[in-house]
Known about the structure:
By secondary structure, this protein is α+β, with helices and mostly antiparallel strands. It has 3 domains: 3-30 and 301-429, Poly(a)-polymerase, middle domain, CATH 1.10.1410.40; 70-234 and 264-279, Beta Polymerase, domain 2, CATH 3.30.460.90; 435-472. The protein is 40% helix and 14% strand. It has helices spanning 46-65, 70-92, 172-190, 255-262, 280-283, 291-299, 317-334, 344-357, 369-386, 407-422, 431-471; strands spanning 3-7, 13-17, 104-108, 122-130, 134-138, 146-151, 198-202, 211-218, 224-235, 266-269, 286-289. The strands form 2 sheets. Strands 3, 4, 5, 6, 7, 8, 9, 10 and 11 form a 9-stranded mixed sheet that branches. It has a two-stranded antiparallel ribbon with strand order 1-2. α7 (317-334) packs across α9 (369-386). The protein is globular, with a radius of gyration of 27 Å.
Amino acid sequence: MTSEWVPHSNNKVIRFQSAEADPPPRQRFHGPIETLGREESVETTPAIILQEKELSKRIRLMAKKLTIKPEERKLAAEIINDLVDQLICFLRNNEKYACFKEVKKLTAGSYYEFVKISHPDEFDIMLTIPLPRIKWTEVEAFSGVLYKLTVSRMPRNDLKMFLLDDCETISPLKMMEELRTLIKQFLKTSYKGCHKNWKVKLQRKAQGSPAVTMLLQDSEGEQDISIDLVLGLEVSQKWPNCTNDGMNIDEWLGKKTKGDLKHKPFYFVPKHPRRRALSEDLKETWRISFSHIEKILMMNHGSAKNCCERGAAHCCRKICLRLMKYLVHVLKEQYPQELSKLYSYCVKTAYFHSMVRRPKDDQWPASKVDECFLNFLDDFIEHVEKSELKHFFVPTYNLFDSKNFAQKNLKFLLKVLKEQKANHILAFAPPEEHQQEALAPQSQHLLVKLAALFVIFLIFVFFVKIFKMFYQ
Protein backbone atom coordinates (compact mmCIF):
# COMPACT_ATOMS: atom_id res chain seq x y z
CA MET A 1 0.00 0.00 0.00
CA THR A 2 1.42 3.39 -1.01
CA SER A 3 0.94 6.81 0.55
CA GLU A 4 0.20 10.21 -0.95
CA TRP A 5 1.07 13.49 0.73
CA VAL A 6 -1.21 16.46 0.06
CA PRO A 7 -1.50 19.99 1.50
CA HIS A 8 -4.41 20.73 3.80
CA SER A 9 -6.34 24.03 3.80
CA ASN A 10 -4.35 25.21 6.85
CA ASN A 11 -1.03 24.66 5.01
CA LYS A 12 -0.34 21.45 6.92
CA VAL A 13 0.54 18.19 5.22
CA ILE A 14 -1.79 15.20 5.34
CA ARG A 15 -0.96 11.60 4.48
CA PHE A 16 -3.58 9.62 2.60
CA GLN A 17 -3.37 5.93 1.89
CA SER A 18 -3.55 5.30 -1.83
CA ALA A 19 -6.67 3.72 -3.24
CA GLU A 20 -4.59 1.68 -5.70
CA ALA A 21 -4.17 -0.99 -3.05
CA ASP A 22 -7.22 -2.23 -1.23
CA PRO A 23 -7.49 -0.24 2.02
CA PRO A 24 -8.66 -1.97 5.16
CA PRO A 25 -12.43 -1.57 5.48
CA ARG A 26 -13.72 0.86 8.09
CA GLN A 27 -14.91 -1.07 11.09
CA ARG A 28 -18.57 -0.34 11.39
CA PHE A 29 -19.98 0.61 14.77
CA HIS A 30 -22.26 -1.88 16.46
CA GLY A 31 -25.61 -0.35 17.22
CA PRO A 32 -29.26 -0.14 16.23
CA ILE A 33 -28.58 1.83 13.03
CA GLU A 34 -29.77 -0.04 9.97
CA THR A 35 -26.90 -0.91 7.61
CA LEU A 36 -29.10 -1.97 4.69
CA GLY A 37 -27.12 -5.10 3.96
CA ARG A 38 -23.70 -3.51 3.64
CA GLU A 39 -20.35 -5.03 4.55
CA GLU A 40 -20.21 -6.98 7.81
CA SER A 41 -17.88 -6.04 10.65
CA VAL A 42 -14.73 -8.09 10.97
CA GLU A 43 -13.48 -9.48 14.24
CA THR A 44 -13.12 -6.75 16.85
CA THR A 45 -9.69 -6.27 18.43
CA PRO A 46 -8.46 -3.80 21.09
CA ALA A 47 -6.69 -1.80 18.35
CA ILE A 48 -9.89 -1.57 16.31
CA ILE A 49 -11.90 -0.51 19.35
CA LEU A 50 -9.36 2.24 20.06
CA GLN A 51 -9.51 3.44 16.45
CA GLU A 52 -13.31 3.52 16.59
CA LYS A 53 -13.21 5.56 19.79
CA GLU A 54 -10.73 8.02 18.30
CA LEU A 55 -12.83 8.36 15.13
CA SER A 56 -15.99 8.85 17.17
CA LYS A 57 -14.30 11.56 19.22
CA ARG A 58 -12.98 13.24 16.06
CA ILE A 59 -16.46 13.39 14.48
CA ARG A 60 -18.15 14.66 17.63
CA LEU A 61 -15.57 17.41 18.19
CA MET A 62 -15.93 18.59 14.59
CA ALA A 63 -19.73 18.62 14.93
CA LYS A 64 -19.41 21.04 17.86
CA LYS A 65 -16.96 23.29 15.99
CA LEU A 66 -19.32 23.69 13.03
CA THR A 67 -22.11 25.20 15.14
CA ILE A 68 -22.53 28.95 14.62
CA LYS A 69 -22.42 31.04 17.78
CA PRO A 70 -25.75 32.75 18.66
CA GLU A 71 -24.16 36.21 18.84
CA GLU A 72 -22.72 35.81 15.32
CA ARG A 73 -26.09 34.68 14.00
CA LYS A 74 -27.89 37.60 15.65
CA LEU A 75 -25.53 40.26 14.26
CA ALA A 76 -25.63 38.85 10.73
CA ALA A 77 -29.43 38.61 10.79
CA GLU A 78 -29.80 42.24 11.88
CA ILE A 79 -27.51 43.50 9.12
CA ILE A 80 -29.03 41.40 6.34
CA ASN A 81 -32.68 41.95 7.28
CA ASP A 82 -32.29 45.72 7.47
CA LEU A 83 -30.52 45.92 4.11
CA VAL A 84 -32.93 43.64 2.24
CA ASP A 85 -36.02 45.27 3.76
CA GLN A 86 -34.79 48.67 2.52
CA LEU A 87 -34.19 47.20 -0.94
CA ILE A 88 -37.66 45.60 -1.09
CA CYS A 89 -39.24 48.93 -0.18
CA PHE A 90 -37.25 50.67 -2.92
CA LEU A 91 -38.21 48.11 -5.59
CA ARG A 92 -41.90 48.32 -4.71
CA ASN A 93 -41.87 52.10 -4.99
CA ASN A 94 -39.90 52.35 -8.23
CA GLU A 95 -41.77 54.17 -11.01
CA LYS A 96 -40.26 52.48 -14.03
CA TYR A 97 -41.20 48.80 -13.68
CA ALA A 98 -44.62 47.92 -12.35
CA CYS A 99 -43.83 44.18 -12.12
CA PHE A 100 -41.34 44.88 -9.31
CA LYS A 101 -44.09 46.48 -7.23
CA GLU A 102 -45.22 42.99 -6.17
CA VAL A 103 -41.76 41.74 -5.23
CA LYS A 104 -41.40 39.68 -2.03
CA LYS A 105 -38.49 38.26 -0.06
CA LEU A 106 -38.05 34.50 0.09
CA THR A 107 -35.16 33.34 2.26
CA ALA A 108 -33.44 30.10 1.34
CA GLY A 109 -30.08 28.41 1.56
CA SER A 110 -27.95 26.93 4.32
CA TYR A 111 -28.11 29.84 6.80
CA TYR A 112 -31.90 29.90 6.88
CA GLU A 113 -32.04 26.09 6.98
CA PHE A 114 -29.67 26.09 10.01
CA VAL A 115 -27.05 23.97 8.25
CA LYS A 116 -24.49 26.69 7.59
CA ILE A 117 -20.97 25.69 8.60
CA SER A 118 -18.43 27.94 10.26
CA HIS A 119 -19.38 31.64 10.05
CA PRO A 120 -22.59 33.26 8.75
CA ASP A 121 -20.85 34.96 5.82
CA GLU A 122 -23.07 33.96 2.87
CA PHE A 123 -26.80 34.50 2.42
CA ASP A 124 -29.17 33.47 -0.37
CA ILE A 125 -32.31 35.51 -0.83
CA MET A 126 -34.82 35.16 -3.64
CA LEU A 127 -36.72 38.24 -4.83
CA THR A 128 -39.96 36.70 -6.06
CA ILE A 129 -42.41 38.14 -8.58
CA PRO A 130 -45.80 36.46 -9.17
CA LEU A 131 -46.47 35.66 -12.80
CA PRO A 132 -49.71 35.55 -14.74
CA ARG A 133 -50.50 32.23 -16.39
CA ILE A 134 -47.56 31.22 -18.57
CA LYS A 135 -46.37 28.36 -20.74
CA TRP A 136 -43.08 26.58 -20.26
CA THR A 137 -41.18 24.44 -22.74
CA GLU A 138 -38.51 22.01 -21.59
CA VAL A 139 -35.11 22.56 -23.20
CA GLU A 140 -33.92 19.31 -24.77
CA ALA A 141 -30.85 17.52 -23.40
CA PHE A 142 -31.29 19.00 -19.89
CA SER A 143 -33.71 16.40 -18.50
CA GLY A 144 -36.37 18.70 -17.09
CA VAL A 145 -34.39 21.40 -15.25
CA LEU A 146 -34.09 24.09 -17.96
CA TYR A 147 -37.03 25.82 -19.65
CA LYS A 148 -38.14 28.50 -22.05
CA LEU A 149 -40.95 30.67 -20.66
CA THR A 150 -43.60 32.27 -22.83
CA VAL A 151 -46.67 34.33 -22.01
CA SER A 152 -50.10 32.97 -22.92
CA ARG A 153 -51.18 36.43 -24.00
CA MET A 154 -49.66 39.89 -24.02
CA PRO A 155 -49.41 40.92 -20.35
CA ARG A 156 -51.09 44.10 -19.18
CA ASN A 157 -48.27 45.13 -16.87
CA ASP A 158 -44.77 46.04 -18.03
CA LEU A 159 -43.63 42.40 -18.11
CA LYS A 160 -43.91 42.98 -21.86
CA MET A 161 -40.78 45.13 -21.59
CA PHE A 162 -38.85 41.95 -20.84
CA LEU A 163 -40.02 39.93 -23.85
CA LEU A 164 -37.79 38.97 -26.76
CA ASP A 165 -38.45 40.04 -30.35
CA ASP A 166 -41.05 37.29 -30.77
CA CYS A 167 -43.19 39.17 -28.20
CA GLU A 168 -43.78 35.91 -26.30
CA THR A 169 -40.55 34.67 -24.68
CA ILE A 170 -39.64 36.10 -21.27
CA SER A 171 -35.97 37.06 -21.27
CA PRO A 172 -33.98 36.27 -18.09
CA LEU A 173 -31.09 38.43 -19.34
CA LYS A 174 -33.29 41.52 -19.70
CA MET A 175 -34.91 41.05 -16.31
CA MET A 176 -31.62 40.53 -14.48
CA GLU A 177 -30.04 43.51 -16.24
CA GLU A 178 -32.84 45.80 -15.09
CA LEU A 179 -32.83 44.34 -11.56
CA ARG A 180 -29.11 44.97 -11.32
CA THR A 181 -29.64 48.55 -12.52
CA LEU A 182 -32.30 49.12 -9.87
CA ILE A 183 -30.06 47.72 -7.12
CA LYS A 184 -27.24 50.04 -8.23
CA GLN A 185 -29.64 52.97 -8.07
CA PHE A 186 -30.80 51.89 -4.62
CA LEU A 187 -27.26 51.80 -3.22
CA LYS A 188 -26.44 55.22 -4.68
CA THR A 189 -29.60 57.13 -3.81
CA SER A 190 -31.73 55.38 -1.21
CA TYR A 191 -29.59 53.19 1.00
CA LYS A 192 -29.52 54.57 4.56
CA GLY A 193 -26.98 52.21 6.03
CA CYS A 194 -27.76 48.98 7.82
CA HIS A 195 -25.37 48.96 10.76
CA LYS A 196 -22.60 51.15 12.08
CA ASN A 197 -19.08 50.23 10.94
CA TRP A 198 -20.42 48.32 7.92
CA LYS A 199 -20.44 49.40 4.28
CA VAL A 200 -21.86 47.70 1.20
CA LYS A 201 -20.87 47.51 -2.45
CA LEU A 202 -22.07 45.68 -5.54
CA GLN A 203 -19.89 42.85 -6.80
CA ARG A 204 -19.02 42.40 -10.45
CA LYS A 205 -21.32 40.16 -12.41
CA ALA A 206 -20.12 36.55 -12.24
CA GLN A 207 -20.33 34.61 -15.49
CA GLY A 208 -23.06 31.97 -15.36
CA SER A 209 -24.36 33.08 -11.97
CA PRO A 210 -28.09 33.88 -11.62
CA ALA A 211 -27.43 36.21 -8.67
CA VAL A 212 -26.72 39.86 -8.05
CA THR A 213 -24.18 39.81 -5.24
CA MET A 214 -23.75 42.53 -2.62
CA LEU A 215 -20.70 42.49 -0.37
CA LEU A 216 -20.79 43.94 3.13
CA GLN A 217 -17.51 44.75 4.89
CA ASP A 218 -16.83 45.99 8.38
CA SER A 219 -14.72 49.11 8.80
CA GLU A 220 -11.72 47.12 10.07
CA GLY A 221 -11.78 44.80 7.06
CA GLU A 222 -11.85 41.68 9.23
CA GLN A 223 -15.21 40.29 8.15
CA ASP A 224 -17.11 40.05 4.89
CA ILE A 225 -20.74 39.08 4.32
CA SER A 226 -22.06 38.37 0.84
CA ILE A 227 -25.72 38.41 -0.16
CA ASP A 228 -26.78 36.62 -3.33
CA LEU A 229 -30.02 38.13 -4.62
CA VAL A 230 -31.74 35.85 -7.13
CA LEU A 231 -34.80 36.76 -9.14
CA GLY A 232 -37.53 34.13 -8.85
CA LEU A 233 -40.64 34.03 -11.04
CA GLU A 234 -43.44 32.52 -8.99
CA VAL A 235 -45.69 30.10 -10.89
CA SER A 236 -48.96 29.08 -9.24
CA GLN A 237 -49.74 26.26 -11.65
CA LYS A 238 -49.42 22.48 -11.51
CA TRP A 239 -45.83 21.31 -11.25
CA PRO A 240 -44.25 20.04 -14.52
CA ASN A 241 -44.76 16.36 -15.39
CA CYS A 242 -41.06 15.62 -14.89
CA THR A 243 -41.62 16.05 -11.13
CA ASN A 244 -44.31 13.34 -10.88
CA ASP A 245 -41.88 10.67 -9.65
CA GLY A 246 -39.83 13.00 -7.47
CA MET A 247 -39.91 13.96 -3.78
CA ASN A 248 -40.59 10.42 -2.54
CA ILE A 249 -41.24 11.40 1.07
CA ASP A 250 -44.26 9.15 1.68
CA GLU A 251 -42.46 7.00 4.28
CA TRP A 252 -40.47 9.91 5.68
CA LEU A 253 -42.92 12.79 6.14
CA GLY A 254 -46.16 11.24 4.90
CA LYS A 255 -48.40 11.34 1.84
CA LYS A 256 -50.44 14.24 3.19
CA THR A 257 -47.36 16.41 3.60
CA LYS A 258 -46.27 15.52 0.08
CA GLY A 259 -49.68 16.46 -1.30
CA ASP A 260 -49.69 19.77 0.56
CA LEU A 261 -46.22 20.67 -0.73
CA LYS A 262 -47.16 19.86 -4.32
CA HIS A 263 -49.97 22.42 -4.11
CA LYS A 264 -47.48 25.19 -3.38
CA PRO A 265 -46.07 27.39 -6.17
CA PHE A 266 -42.70 26.69 -7.75
CA TYR A 267 -40.15 29.09 -9.17
CA PHE A 268 -38.04 29.75 -12.23
CA VAL A 269 -34.66 31.44 -11.74
CA PRO A 270 -32.52 32.98 -14.53
CA LYS A 271 -29.79 30.38 -14.87
CA HIS A 272 -28.30 28.96 -18.04
CA PRO A 273 -25.95 25.95 -18.41
CA ARG A 274 -22.34 26.35 -17.25
CA ARG A 275 -20.77 25.61 -20.60
CA ARG A 276 -18.38 27.36 -22.92
CA ALA A 277 -19.51 29.03 -26.13
CA LEU A 278 -23.22 29.00 -25.30
CA SER A 279 -25.62 29.89 -28.07
CA GLU A 280 -27.73 33.02 -27.62
CA ASP A 281 -30.77 30.77 -27.43
CA LEU A 282 -29.41 28.81 -24.45
CA LYS A 283 -28.56 32.03 -22.63
CA GLU A 284 -32.28 32.83 -22.50
CA THR A 285 -33.23 29.85 -20.34
CA TRP A 286 -34.71 29.51 -16.85
CA ARG A 287 -33.93 26.84 -14.29
CA ILE A 288 -36.70 25.33 -12.19
CA SER A 289 -36.27 25.87 -8.45
CA PHE A 290 -37.77 24.23 -5.36
CA SER A 291 -35.53 25.96 -2.81
CA HIS A 292 -38.57 26.97 -0.73
CA ILE A 293 -39.68 23.32 -0.54
CA GLU A 294 -36.14 22.28 0.40
CA LYS A 295 -36.25 24.75 3.27
CA ILE A 296 -39.56 23.30 4.49
CA LEU A 297 -38.11 19.77 4.37
CA MET A 298 -35.09 20.94 6.34
CA MET A 299 -37.07 22.77 8.99
CA ASN A 300 -39.66 19.99 9.38
CA HIS A 301 -37.32 17.06 8.99
CA GLY A 302 -38.69 14.57 11.53
CA SER A 303 -41.10 11.74 10.86
CA ALA A 304 -42.50 12.73 14.26
CA LYS A 305 -43.88 16.27 14.16
CA ASN A 306 -42.11 17.28 17.38
CA CYS A 307 -38.63 16.05 16.39
CA CYS A 308 -35.91 18.32 17.86
CA GLU A 309 -38.44 20.51 19.68
CA ARG A 310 -37.83 21.49 23.26
CA GLY A 311 -38.62 18.56 25.55
CA ALA A 312 -38.77 16.07 22.65
CA ALA A 313 -36.22 13.65 21.24
CA HIS A 314 -33.48 15.18 19.11
CA CYS A 315 -32.03 13.75 15.90
CA CYS A 316 -28.66 14.39 14.23
CA ARG A 317 -29.83 14.83 10.61
CA LYS A 318 -28.66 18.44 10.26
CA ILE A 319 -25.43 17.75 12.15
CA CYS A 320 -24.58 15.01 9.65
CA LEU A 321 -25.29 17.38 6.77
CA ARG A 322 -22.98 20.01 8.26
CA LEU A 323 -20.24 17.43 8.66
CA MET A 324 -20.55 16.29 5.06
CA LYS A 325 -20.60 19.88 3.80
CA TYR A 326 -17.39 20.55 5.71
CA LEU A 327 -15.71 17.40 4.37
CA VAL A 328 -16.55 18.46 0.81
CA HIS A 329 -15.34 21.99 1.58
CA VAL A 330 -11.94 20.66 2.69
CA LEU A 331 -11.62 18.38 -0.34
CA LYS A 332 -12.51 21.21 -2.73
CA GLU A 333 -9.81 23.38 -1.14
CA GLN A 334 -7.26 20.61 -1.58
CA TYR A 335 -8.29 19.76 -5.17
CA PRO A 336 -9.97 22.87 -6.65
CA GLN A 337 -9.50 21.83 -10.27
CA GLU A 338 -10.54 18.18 -10.03
CA LEU A 339 -13.58 18.93 -7.83
CA SER A 340 -14.73 22.21 -9.37
CA LYS A 341 -18.09 20.63 -10.30
CA LEU A 342 -18.76 19.33 -6.80
CA TYR A 343 -21.30 21.82 -5.48
CA SER A 344 -22.92 21.91 -2.06
CA TYR A 345 -26.21 21.15 -3.82
CA CYS A 346 -24.86 17.64 -4.54
CA VAL A 347 -24.43 17.10 -0.80
CA LYS A 348 -27.89 18.49 -0.11
CA THR A 349 -29.46 16.20 -2.72
CA ALA A 350 -27.66 13.17 -1.29
CA TYR A 351 -28.93 14.20 2.15
CA PHE A 352 -32.57 14.11 0.99
CA HIS A 353 -32.05 10.67 -0.55
CA SER A 354 -30.57 9.44 2.74
CA MET A 355 -33.63 10.78 4.58
CA VAL A 356 -35.82 8.68 2.29
CA ARG A 357 -33.57 5.66 2.77
CA ARG A 358 -33.71 5.97 6.58
CA PRO A 359 -37.01 7.77 7.22
CA LYS A 360 -37.46 7.14 10.96
CA ASP A 361 -36.23 9.48 13.69
CA ASP A 362 -34.73 6.60 15.70
CA GLN A 363 -32.41 5.93 12.76
CA TRP A 364 -30.82 9.36 13.36
CA PRO A 365 -30.42 9.59 17.16
CA ALA A 366 -28.37 12.56 18.40
CA SER A 367 -26.39 10.21 20.64
CA LYS A 368 -25.15 8.28 17.58
CA VAL A 369 -23.99 11.15 15.38
CA ASP A 370 -20.73 9.33 14.57
CA GLU A 371 -22.51 6.23 13.27
CA CYS A 372 -25.11 8.24 11.37
CA PHE A 373 -22.51 10.40 9.67
CA LEU A 374 -20.51 7.37 8.55
CA ASN A 375 -23.69 5.84 7.13
CA PHE A 376 -24.36 9.09 5.29
CA LEU A 377 -20.80 9.06 3.96
CA ASP A 378 -21.34 5.51 2.71
CA ASP A 379 -24.52 6.65 0.96
CA PHE A 380 -22.64 9.46 -0.76
CA ILE A 381 -19.82 7.14 -1.84
CA GLU A 382 -22.44 4.79 -3.28
CA HIS A 383 -23.87 7.64 -5.41
CA VAL A 384 -20.37 8.40 -6.70
CA GLU A 385 -19.61 4.73 -7.43
CA LYS A 386 -22.81 4.38 -9.46
CA SER A 387 -22.35 7.80 -11.15
CA GLU A 388 -25.94 8.49 -10.19
CA LEU A 389 -27.34 11.27 -8.04
CA LYS A 390 -30.87 12.02 -9.13
CA HIS A 391 -32.34 15.47 -8.61
CA PHE A 392 -34.69 15.08 -5.66
CA PHE A 393 -37.60 16.83 -7.37
CA VAL A 394 -36.77 16.13 -11.03
CA PRO A 395 -35.51 12.51 -11.00
CA THR A 396 -34.95 12.52 -14.77
CA TYR A 397 -31.95 14.78 -14.12
CA ASN A 398 -28.72 13.16 -12.89
CA LEU A 399 -26.29 15.50 -11.14
CA PHE A 400 -23.49 12.96 -11.66
CA ASP A 401 -24.16 12.47 -15.36
CA SER A 402 -21.06 12.80 -17.54
CA LYS A 403 -22.49 16.01 -19.03
CA ASN A 404 -22.59 17.60 -15.58
CA PHE A 405 -19.63 15.93 -13.87
CA ALA A 406 -16.68 14.59 -15.88
CA GLN A 407 -16.21 10.88 -15.22
CA LYS A 408 -12.46 11.22 -14.60
CA ASN A 409 -13.22 13.80 -11.91
CA LEU A 410 -15.94 11.58 -10.48
CA LYS A 411 -13.45 8.71 -10.22
CA PHE A 412 -11.03 11.09 -8.51
CA LEU A 413 -13.76 12.07 -6.05
CA LEU A 414 -14.41 8.40 -5.30
CA LYS A 415 -10.69 7.89 -4.67
CA VAL A 416 -10.34 10.75 -2.18
CA LEU A 417 -13.57 9.83 -0.38
CA LYS A 418 -12.35 6.27 0.10
CA GLU A 419 -9.03 7.63 1.31
CA GLN A 420 -10.83 9.73 3.89
CA LYS A 421 -12.82 6.70 4.99
CA ALA A 422 -9.69 4.52 5.24
CA ASN A 423 -7.83 7.21 7.19
CA HIS A 424 -10.67 7.79 9.68
CA ILE A 425 -11.80 11.14 8.17
CA LEU A 426 -8.44 12.86 8.49
CA ALA A 427 -10.07 16.10 7.28
CA PHE A 428 -11.68 16.31 10.75
CA ALA A 429 -8.40 15.81 12.61
CA PRO A 430 -7.09 18.70 14.76
CA PRO A 431 -3.96 20.59 13.56
CA GLU A 432 -1.62 18.81 16.00
CA GLU A 433 -2.47 15.45 14.39
CA HIS A 434 -1.69 16.94 11.00
CA GLN A 435 1.72 17.97 12.34
CA GLN A 436 2.39 14.44 13.53
CA GLU A 437 1.40 13.13 10.13
CA ALA A 438 3.68 15.72 8.49
CA LEU A 439 6.72 14.44 10.44
CA ALA A 440 6.19 10.85 9.31
CA PRO A 441 7.39 11.23 5.67
CA GLN A 442 10.73 12.71 6.76
CA SER A 443 11.60 9.65 8.85
CA GLN A 444 10.27 7.31 6.18
CA HIS A 445 12.32 8.97 3.44
CA LEU A 446 15.43 8.81 5.67
CA LEU A 447 14.97 5.07 6.23
CA VAL A 448 14.47 4.49 2.51
CA LYS A 449 17.68 6.39 1.71
CA LEU A 450 19.68 4.50 4.35
CA ALA A 451 18.35 1.19 3.04
CA ALA A 452 19.27 2.16 -0.52
CA LEU A 453 22.79 3.16 0.52
CA PHE A 454 23.22 -0.13 2.39
CA VAL A 455 22.14 -2.11 -0.68
CA ILE A 456 24.56 -0.13 -2.85
CA PHE A 457 27.34 -0.81 -0.35
CA LEU A 458 26.64 -4.57 -0.41
CA ILE A 459 26.67 -4.57 -4.20
CA PHE A 460 29.97 -2.70 -4.19
CA VAL A 461 31.53 -5.20 -1.75
CA PHE A 462 30.25 -8.08 -3.87
CA PHE A 463 31.85 -6.77 -7.04
CA VAL A 464 35.13 -6.01 -5.23
CA LYS A 465 35.33 -9.64 -4.10
CA ILE A 466 34.55 -10.89 -7.60
CA PHE A 467 37.23 -8.61 -9.02
CA LYS A 468 39.85 -9.91 -6.55
CA MET A 469 38.96 -13.52 -7.24
CA PHE A 470 39.20 -12.98 -11.00
CA TYR A 471 42.69 -11.42 -10.90
CA GLN A 472 44.07 -13.85 -8.34
